[in-house]
Write a structure and sequence with these properties.
The chain is α/β, with parallel strands linked by helices. It contains ten helices and ten strands. The strands form two sheets. It has a seven-stranded mixed beta sheet, sandwiched between helices. Strands 5-10-9 form a three-stranded mixed beta sheet. Helix 1 links the parallel strand 2 and strand 3. It is globular and about 50 Å long.
């Protein structure tokens, strides 16, 4: 892929995303906040679920129940957004970086760190926390954001065979070279499913750039036909974000905090994990093999059938609920059963 092919000249793509511009302009129906009784950390966890994913029996309820109770067990504030935060003609993906920006706008006294998780990314190792990642990848560095690539292998968090991912190794990676590497090897590209942002003025600048589609440098729908079909404009823009600020965004391998749900330690080993579920992954056991590992977060991305996600998350919640309840009891918190919330979502508020 040539450098010129990454440029977008269409006036349509340079149009504003629209929607609410700042957190204080949101109405109460757009989001819901849960705060633990004992808030022991200024980490804020944020996710987004459309209303249909929060209906009784929908996979969103199972996934949210796991992540919410995990957050409470570590003293984190948990927020969900259930309304589009951008132009309704654009994909939900553009609402995700804006939701993080809104969390940052609450200030470091409230959210010193924002931990963003896709709705279909769930905590697998409930004893794991965000603080060790902050210490390992942010301390003593200029890093403002921590993201993951699509590789599951690499020493010390590195992405295997990728030169322009780690913030500390990008002296020779220009914006052009970085984008060229991503075009050559998609496994080196960052994934916006799970990431951590430090609440600083510089991080605000980065998130405003991303949430605003780079002021026209990013395509709102994606560059390739497959990206447009899947609504990957915001995902593709995260590539440009990393390329523009290579030394401020650290991209580590997926094992750190964003592993595909079908990852199997014995099957994949040192092999490439496909970026979408393959036809041979038919059984529920194979679809959720990541949850048999000790990986921090497993991400059920790419499933086109919501029944698959529902079956996966229901089964995982059944296994994880005892450990979550024990962790909450030790922390002095109460288990929140999202499955039994009222049918009418507005009643949650």
């Amino acid at each position: 892929m040539s450098w010129r092919s990454w440029d977008t000249y269409s006036l349509e793509h340079r149009s504003a995303l629209g929607g609410v511009a700042h957190f204080h302009q949101l109405n109460g129906s757009a989001y819901k906040v849960w705060v633990p009784k004992k808030r022991r950390s200024r980490v804020c966890v944020v996710s987004m679920y459309s209303q249909d994913l929060l209906q009784p029996g929908a996979w969103g309820r199972y996934a949210m129940e796991m992540n919410l109770n995990w957050a409470f067990s570590h003293g984190y504030k948990f927020t969900i957004f259930q309304e589009r935060l951008a132009n309704p003609q654009q994909s939900y993906g553009w609402s995700l970086p804006r939701s993080v920006l809104f969390m940052l706008e609450q200030g470091p006294h409230e959210c010193e760190w924002v931990f963003s998780m896709d709705g279909d990314a769930v905590v697998n190792n409930v004893t794991a926390s965000v603080e060790p990642l902050i210490k390992q990848f942010f301390s003593g560095s200029a890093t403002q954001m921590l993201m993951t690539c699509h590789w599951h292998i690499g020493l010390n968090g590195d992405c295997h065979n990728c030169r322009c991912t780690r913030a500390r190794k990008v002296k020779h990676c220009s914006e052009k070279k970085t984008l060229f590497e991503y075009g050559r090897n998609s496994h080196c590209a960052p994934n916006m499913g799970v990431y951590i942002v430090k609440n600083t003025p510089k991080a605000w600048e980065l998130m405003r750039w991303w949430a605003g589609a780079g002021g026209g440098r990013c395509s709102l729908r994606g560059d390739r036909a497959s990206e447009k079909e899947r609504g990957l404009g915001a995902q593709k823009c995260s590539l440009r974000l990393k390329a523009r600020w290579p030394g401020l965004i650290d991209v580590v391998n997926a094992r750190v905090m964003n592993m595909p749900a079908w990852f199997n330690e014995h099957v994949h080993g040192m092999r490439v994990i496909p970026l979408v579920p393959q036809p041979w992954i038919k059984s529920l056991a194979k679809q959720m093999s990541c949850f048999e590992s000790l990986v921090f977060i497993c991400h059920a991305l790419g499933f086109h059938n919501n029944i698959d996600r529902t079956n996966i998350f229901r089964a995982v919640l059944e296994k994880r609920e005892p450990a979550l309840r024990a962790a909450l009891l030790a922390a002095g918190e109460i288990y929140v059963s999202v499955r039994h919330f009222p049918t009418n979502i507005t009643d949650w508020w």
